[in-house]
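Sample intake sheet
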Amino acid sequence: MGINFRAIEAYITRRREDEKSNATINRELELLRGALRLAHDRQLLPSIPKVRVLPENNTRQGFFERPDLEAVVSALPAYLQDFTRLAYLTGWRKGEIISLKWTDVDRDARAIRLRPEAAKTGRGRTVMLEGDLAELIDRRWQARLLEKDGNARIAALVFHPRREARGRLPQGVGDRLPSCRGPRQTVPRPAPHRSPEHGARGCPRTSGDGGDRPSDTQHVRPLQHRQRG
């Protein structure tokens, strides 16, 4: 294989000439390291050449001030407003907020804890409930009771889909919503008006009408093209 330190450095130079950022080049070099390690493990490469890591300086800059936040929140649906405020107040990622359960909220100690398995970094965090954040959690506490099939239940998640928001929630927010591509369900239909010369579904009778016609509660599949023999 013709991959060595000099070839790798030439690749880095070409990518910089293409005006690629150090972060982009580093991600590409990570793939190269993995491929070289695999080739070495399979004894296809006698040694692994050095692949250096380029310095990255892509730290986010600037601040989102409170008036900017409220301008955005005012344009959001009600079920996303506190979700967005908590992200602003804690700096937590969307997936971390989605996973937040009431068992993670200690209202007596006035703290919320992010479980390590729910954190992107794998490290848990604790945020004290004060000021606006405490008021936000109190609002969510009042909204934790849900009604389903005439029965009241307590939501396990701090941010759960309300019935009026169903179908509009971003994917993953709160409980898993039923898929629109689920199995077909049979829905009874009212019997159509029929005259003696019409068949069971209100369609003109033909020589093919008979007892094997599907009933009004069966799913009728779309017609398919007849295959030629």
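Comment: Confidence is low (pLDDT under 50) at residues 163-189, 198-204, 206-226. Residues 66-165 form one domain.
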